[in-house]
C-alpha cells in the first residue's frame, strides 16, 4: 500500500508537483522515498528547489541506505560538477549528508 501511495504521489511531470511529493516523502523515510529522491539529484531536468527537497528526503532517510552511487553524487554536488550549477545551500546540505 505504501509503495503504491509513493508511486501515485510521485507521478509528476513538473517541478511544482515534485516539490509537493517530496514534502510528503520527507515524512516517509523509507527505501522507496530515498530511491526516488536519489534519482532527482545532479540532473538537468529539475530546478534547484526540487534538488534541495530531494536532499532533505535523503537526509531524513536512514544512513544505512546510502550507497556509493549516492556518495559520488553528493561529492559532485559539493564540487559543483553536476549539469546545473550547485548553490551554496545544496553544497552544504550534501556535505551534511556525507558527514551523517
UniProtKB/TrEMBL annotation:
GO biological process assignments: lipoprotein metabolic process
The protein, known as: Clathrin/coatomer adaptor adaptin-like N-terminal domain-containing protein
A GO MF label: phospholipid transporter activity
Record organism: Cylicostephanus goldi
GO cellular component, as recorded: basolateral plasma membrane; endoplasmic reticulum; Golgi apparatus
Amino acid at each position: 500500500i505504501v509503495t503504491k501511495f509513493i508511486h501515485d504521489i510521485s507521478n509528476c511531470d513538473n517541478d511544482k508537483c515534485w516539490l509537493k511529493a517530496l514534502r510528503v516523502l520527507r515524512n516517509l523515510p523509507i527505501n522507496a522515498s530515498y530511491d526516488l529522491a536519489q534519482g532527482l539529484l545532479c540532473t538537468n531536468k529539475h530546478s534547484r528547489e526540487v534538488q534541495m527537497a530531494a536532499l532533505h528526503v535523503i537526509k531524513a532517510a536512514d544512513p544505512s541506505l546510502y550507497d556509493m552511487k549516492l556518495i559520488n553524487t553528493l561529492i559532485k554536488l559539493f564540487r559543483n560538477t553536476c549539469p546545473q550549477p550547485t548553490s551554496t545551500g545544496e553544497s552544504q546540505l550534501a556535505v551534511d549528508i556525507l558527514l551523517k
